[in-house]
């Protein structure tokens, strides 16, 4: 067997940046993790806030209960 000293596993992990697909250091020193940079984080958050977070403000109609109409014809 060859006695090649294997380096200990690094504390920091390398993950894929969800925005640009590049390498991102997943460590406490990276404040933008799992993103690689502040720009990528802002881009992703902007897309999420503008597109995915559009909740239609539609209050439930009063007196409208589903399944109550067919209960009389039982
Ligand atoms: Zn990135």
Describe the structure.
By secondary structure, the protein is of the alpha+beta class. It has a domain at 13-52: 2-Layer Sandwich (Erythroid Transcription Factor GATA-1, Chain A). Helix content is 20%, strand content 11%. The protein has one helix and two strands; from the N terminus they run ββα. It has one helix at 38-52; strands spanning 13-16, 23-26. Strands 1-2 form a two-stranded antiparallel ribbon. The longest helix is centred in the middle third of the chain and has 15 residues, at 38-52. It is elongated. The mean pLDDT is 79. Zinc ion binds at residues 17, 19-20, 22, 35-37, 40. Residues 17, 19-20, 22, 35-37, 40 line the site of zinc ion. Belongs to the DNA gyrase inhibitor YacG family. It comes from Piscinibacter gummiphilus. Interacts with GyrB. InterPro entries: DNA_gyrase_inhibitor_YacG, Znf_NHR/GATA. Inhibits all the catalytic activities of DNA gyrase by preventing its interaction with DNA. Acts by binding directly to the C-terminal domain of GyrB, which probably disrupts DNA binding by the gyrase.
Uncertain residue segments = none
Ions, cofactors and other ligands present here are: zinc ion
Measured as a percent range, the helix fraction is: 10-25%
Number of continuous helical runs? 1
- CATH class descriptor of the domain at 13-52: Alpha Beta
CATH level-3 fold name of the domain at 13-52:
Erythroid Transcription Factor GATA-1, Chain A
CATH superfamily of the domain at 13-52: Erythroid Transcription Factor GATA-1, subunit A
Q: State the order of secondary-structure elements, H for helix, E for strand.
A: EEH
Strand content: 5-15%
- Supply the helix-strand structural class: alpha+beta
Termini separation: 80 Å
Mean pLDDT over all positions: 79
Largest sheet properties: 2 strands, antiparallel
Cofactor: Zn(2+)
Family: Belongs to the DNA gyrase inhibitor YacG family.
Keywords: Metal-binding, Zinc
Binding site for Zn(2+): 17, 20, 36, 40
